[in-house]
Predict the structure.
Amino acid sequence: MRFAVLVSGSGSNLLALLEAERSGALAPAQIAVVVSNRPGVLALERAATFGKPAHVVDHRAYSDRLGFERALLDLLQLHQVEAVVLAGFMRVLTAQFTDRFPLRIVNTHPSLLPAFPGAHATADAVAHGVKVSGVTVHFVDATLDGGPIIAQRTVPVEDGDDATSLHRRIQRVEHQLLPEVVAQLARGQLLCEGRVVRQVHHDAQ
């Protein structure tokens, strides 16, 4: 299954995916293209280091969200993309985009959704005084961090944590969980019924 990875920043989750692909742990998923909505970010350099096509579709060049998404979809079609991973991609996608890849877009989020959606999840968790946070990998729909939950892992919030220290520990777990889920999706092991996602194992023939 050919994946696009959409990024906006440093690409630490992208790096985890690229390393998993190189080791064989991502199979049969294949990273076909990396696309950033921002030029000059480290994620693009990381993609090039691994020999991956790396492109910029700058959202600021378009008058509206739909025009940006049409350009993005045209690029993904050119690379024969079958599924999409959002890896620190800081744009909300509309139904125009998500409907093209039903149950084939995954995102990772640094909280135990539905708690603390949005761009400031770790800061919100610390400010709220929660004792446990974590990572959620979920299917993407046209809502903000609201698609069906595929997998979650917990990360304790320690005394003295701030948003930076908590996020650093969450990322270590995130970098393990996201490649696992991408491989499961590529293997056809994720079954979504309503909002409930189950992992299924196909018996060897």
Summary: The longest strand covers residues 132-139.
